[in-house]
Design brief:
about 260 residues; mainly alpha; 9 helices; about 80% helix; elongated; disordered C terminus; transport; CysZ/EI24; cell inner membrane
Length: about 260
């Protein structure tokens, strides 16, 4: 359980780091602001269209009597919007990191530099880094989509759907948020997606301690934008812990990009 607290500590340390380096905080805000405008527009559209979508998807219930028709469609509307919000929280980080790739790479490098030791560089051209980030993000989103469908289905189970499922949803959100954010620093260290996932699984509580509070905070409008620079800084500090010398002799040690052929 101590790892949970340590993971949350990295989140706080990251916010403190950008607080001491105001220029990097300002640089890190811009990609989040752009992504926020896009996501607000999408969620507003979903909010207006969710009722019509549910009505279209449930023609078999048109002849149901009250209150069952209203109960079914209201429940499904809430679930659809909840699923959209869940996906927005997950994908916001990926999209923001993709938009701000050069900014966040520089921020992460500066964190490494201020903390001492080696400052790894990928040595890849920007287009290649963007391609790898986009490809890995799609792979993560496929995994998230599968979990979303499963959790959506489990949400119909009485009691379980209103208690356990939301908790699992936030754990899934937090885990993959942590993966997306630590990827900035771990990709610079030549680590492939499969190795990054294995590394995070090996310290699951540490990962959840960092990602779950961040996922909860991201549900508050505008908070995600202001937390992103510190989240990247904190994820870099977390990545430094994960690949510390005592951890580098296991199967999750960085794999060079030269092996990344697909």
């Amino acid at each position: 359980m101590r790892d949970l607290g340590a993971g949350f500590g990295y989140l706080i340390k990251g916010q403190r780091w950008v607080g001491r380096h105001g220029r990097w905080f300002g640089i890190g805000l811009l990609p989040g602001l752009i992504a926020l405008v896009l996501y607000v527009a999408a969620l507003v559209g979903l909010g207006y269209g969710a009722d019509d979508l549910v009505d279209w998807a449930t023609p078999f219930a048109d002849d149901w009597s009250s209150p069952w028709l209203g109960l079914l469609r209201t429940t499904l509307t809430v679930l659809v919007f909840g699923l959209g919000l869940f996906l927005a929280v997950i994908t916001f980080t990926a999209v923001t990191l993709l938009i701000g790739q050069p900014f966040y790479e520089s921020l992460s490098e500066h964190v490494d530099r201020t903390e001492g030791g080696d400052v790894p560089e990928s040595g890849l051209p920007l287009w290649r880094e963007l391609w790898i980030s986009a490809r890995d993000s799609v792979r993560i989103l496929v995994r998230v989509g599968l979990y979303s469908v499963l959790l959506f289905a489990l949400g119909f189970i009485p009691v379980l759907g209103q208690t356990v499922v939301p908790v699992l949803g936030f754990c899934v959100t937090g885990y993959f948020l942590a993966e997306e954010l630590t990827a900035v620093a771990l990709q610079r260290r030549g680590m492939l997606l499969k190795n990054r996932l294995a590394l995070l699984r090996g310290r699951r509580l540490l990962t959840l301690g960092f990602g779950v509070p961040l996922g909860l905070a991201f549900l508050i409008p505008f908070v995600a934008v202001f937390l992103m620079p510190g989240a990247v800084a904190g994820a870099t500090l977390l990545a430094r812990d994960l690949v510390a010398p005592e951890n580098e002799d296991d199967e999750t040690a960085p794999t060079p990009y030269t092996l990344d052929k697909d």
